[in-house]
């Protein structure tokens, strides 16, 4: 994968501008190359989707090129992504067409136009870590929970700080807010752009879930990511 060394992100005085400049604009710019590296479902995500009850209605928030939309053809999934270029790829690559019941559109992870309490399940894979403040990350999780009906669950993945055995080499003591480069080459020209990430330390995504009004059902570590399955808490509002 074309990820190289990374630099510490400055404190986001304007978090919305950080997200516009170092997340939204970057994914639109790198969408075709990024999509080429995203084709195989991760095992836990695949298992979660395949275990959903036939006829269930779910969300893929931050669906990218749509690789998860067709994992379980017995459920209906509405995919969304902030990048219109990735949404275009999800359609043009027929990720939607591989499932009998799937659709995709452009939507923000916090201000998504989903009907409250309507969905049986949701996934949000490698998305929440792109929000540039603690409060916005909690709001992103809360937005996912708000869409779930009582008893519904959501699977959320975020990049881990603890990656000492990966090529990135992050671990405890490193900065948690970083700019991660994406490198492309075309016609002998090398282009490097930087994406904003918040690296989650152990227990942090569980804390965000609780602050959002959720309850962690299950969780763990996979592929340099922390993951949790969450549902609404009894006092969710």
UniProtKB/TrEMBL annotation:
GO molecular function: S-adenosylmethionine-dependent methyltransferase activity; tRNA (5-carboxymethyluridine(34)-5-O)-methyltransferase activity; tRNA binding
Domain Methyltransferase type stretches: 59-155
Keywords, in A-Z order: Methyltransferase, Transferase
Entry's Gene Ontology cellular component terms: cytoplasm; nucleus
Protein name, as recorded: S-adenosyl-L-methionine-dependent methyltransferase
Gene3D superfamilies assigned to the protein according to its UniProt record, in alphabetical order: Vaccinia Virus protein VP39 (3.40.50.150)
InterPro entries the record matches: AlkB_tRNA_MeTrf/Diox, Methyltransf_11, SAM-dependent_MTases_sf
N-terminal signal peptide: none
A biological process term (GO) from this entry: tRNA wobble uridine modification
A Pfam family that the UniProt record links to this protein: Methyltransf_11
């Amino acid at each position: 994968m074309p990820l190289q060394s990374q630099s510490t992100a400055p404190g986001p005085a304007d978090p919305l501008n950080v997200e516009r400049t170092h997340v939204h604009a970057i994914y639109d710019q790198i969408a075709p190359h990024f999509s080429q590296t995203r084709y195989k479902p991760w095992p836990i995500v695949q298992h979660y989707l395949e275990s959903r009850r036939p006829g269930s209605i779910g969300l893929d928030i931050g669906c990218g090129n749509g690789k998860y939309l067709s994992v379980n053809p017995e459920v209906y999934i509405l995919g969304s992504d902030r990048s219109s270029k990735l949404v275009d790829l999800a359609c043009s690559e027929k990720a939607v067409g591989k499932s009998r019941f799937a659709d995709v559109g452009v939507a923000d992870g916090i201000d998504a136009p989903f009907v409250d309490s309507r969905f049986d399940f949701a996934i949000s894979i490698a998305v929440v870590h792109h929000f540039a403040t603690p409060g916005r990350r909690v709001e992103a999780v809360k937005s996912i929970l708000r869409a779930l009906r009582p008893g519904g669950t959501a699977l959320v993945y975020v990049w881990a700080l603890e990656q000492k055995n990966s090529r990135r080499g992050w671990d405890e003591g490193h900065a948690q807010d970083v700019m991660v480069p994406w490198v492309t080459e075309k016609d002998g020209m090398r282009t490097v752009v930087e994406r904003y990430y918040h690296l989650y330390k152990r227990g942090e995504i569980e804390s965000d879930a609780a602050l959002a009004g959720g309850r962690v059902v299950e969780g763990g570590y996979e592929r340099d990511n922390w993951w949790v399955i969450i549902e609404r808490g009894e006092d969710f509002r």
